[in-house]
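A.,

Following up on our hallway conversation. Structure tokens first:
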């Protein structure tokens, strides 16, 4: 979906039942708008670009192990945890 608008990417992820991980501020804003508007989406996990990828991977693994997808649905979560 490279080059597609962020709302389209988030809509497609929601259709597929997938939570998105991003370091893109625009996609973060898109998720936040949906959250404020009570629009359904599967969730966005965001990390600033300064966060080391190893930290992100470790936190994403922890979230995958500890949380069910429906617990993240409709939310914007921030890394590091």
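Then the amino acids I'd put at each of the 81 positions:
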């Amino acid at each position: 979906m490279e080059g597609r608008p962020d709302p389209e990417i988030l809509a497609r992820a929601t259709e597929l039942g997938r939570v998105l991980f991003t370091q893109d501020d625009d996609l973060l804003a898109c998720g936040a708008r949906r959250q404020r508007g009570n629009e359904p989406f599967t969730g966005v996990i965001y990390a600033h670009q300064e966060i080391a990828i190893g930290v992100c991977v470790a936190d994403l693994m922890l979230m995958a192990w500890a949380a069910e997808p429906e617990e993240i649905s409709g939310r914007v979560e921030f890394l590091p945890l």
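The two ends are 28 Å apart (CA to CA). Curious whether your intuition agrees with the design.

B.
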